[in-house]
Amino acid sequence: MPIGEAARNRLNYVNFNQLRSFYAVARESSFTKAAELLCIGQPTVTTQVKTLEETYNLQLFVRGPNELKLTDAGEALLAVAKQIFSLEERAHSLLNTVGNQFAGRMHIGTVGPLFVMKLLSSYIDRFPLMHVTLESANSDTVYQKLLNYEVDVGVLGSDYNDPRLDLVCLGKHEVVIAIPVGHPWTHRKQLNVEELDGQRLIMREKGSMTRRALEEVLAINNIRPNVVMELSRDSVLEATAAGLGLGIISDFEFSRDDRLRALSIAEYQPYTRSYVACLKERSSIPSIDAFVRMSRDYASAENERLRADTVGA
Q: What is the model's pLDDT at position 288?
């Protein structure tokens, strides 16, 4: 075969170790954290990224004194690297499948532990060889982690109207107002939205769908509470119990607490929905597919139970 034709037919390749180091640094925005993630020394990571840049005569990172940013070339390569390592993960999951079992790891991000515990229990019982980690954050944070391949499955408070996601709606959840025992409203079950005008209110942090749902109802009715704090879910309840203001919480997340009571908002009931979500491009990974299928079965069973309760009532 002529030399020119052989060169044209030659398979091009990128050094996989260099690409993996680049991907880890880009994901963690740190050479140190990337080295910890890959379980190798930081000098090795630095050398591999530098060699990758020199091989293609490209700058992939802008290195400042206190920050590390991707260049345009780095952003473009990261998009490709995400796909490559997603496929690698798919291959890893396939090779680790033992009969109908799965052996490996899955990372789940959720808007609240209570939304996912029943599903997790069933999943681990069914696939005991899987090691599952769980982190809790607001919906926007989990959504971004899902898009960035930082979590495999997300439990979200919105569908985000995103065609990249495979979604299962788990249910609809009313947003309620938490009050401390001893408050003048303690013996009530509901309040009118107008009564929140001027009240000291402890809000969830930005990115929370619970917050967003309540804010929409307040805006429609031109109600302006006195927002004294913005806190995470658990902190909202603790601050409310301490008498610092009225808190907001999903009724699904409100567990029995002798320090607190929960009131519905009459007439204008804000609510959120919860969804199990994964990226469509990763939905064929067996371990992820199994979780989504179990979520779909769980949602169907819950809907049947609610219908039966309604008929029985």
A: 92
Overall pTM surpassing 0.85 (yes/no): no
CA 143 centroid distance within chain: 5
Q: What is the dihedral of CA 140, 144, 149, 152, to 10 degrees?
A: 10
CA distances from 47 to 30, 69, 87, 264 (A): 14, 18, 25, 59
Residue 260: CATH number of its domain: 3.40.190.10
- Give the chain's domain count: 3
Q: What are phi and psi of 303, to 5 degrees?
A: -65, -40
Report pLDDT digits (tens) over 208-237: 899 999 999 999 999 999 999 999 888 999
Same domain? 23 vs 84: yes
Q: Which residues contact 44 (CB under 8 A, 6 or more apart)?
A: 21, 35
Task: Let me know if 107 is exposed, middle or buried by CB neighbors in 10 A (0-12, 13-18, 19+).
Answer: middle
H helix runs in 40-198, sequence order: 42-56, 72-95, 113-126, 139-147
Q: How far apart are CA 42 and CA 59, in angstroms?
A: 19
CATH code of residue 31: 1.10.10.10
Q: What residues make up the domain containing 181? A: 172-272
Per residue in 59-96, pLDDT (tens digit) is 999 988 778 899 999 999 998 998 888 888 777 766 76
Of the two residues 15 and 115, the one the predictor is more confident about is 15
Residues 220 and 295 in one domain: no
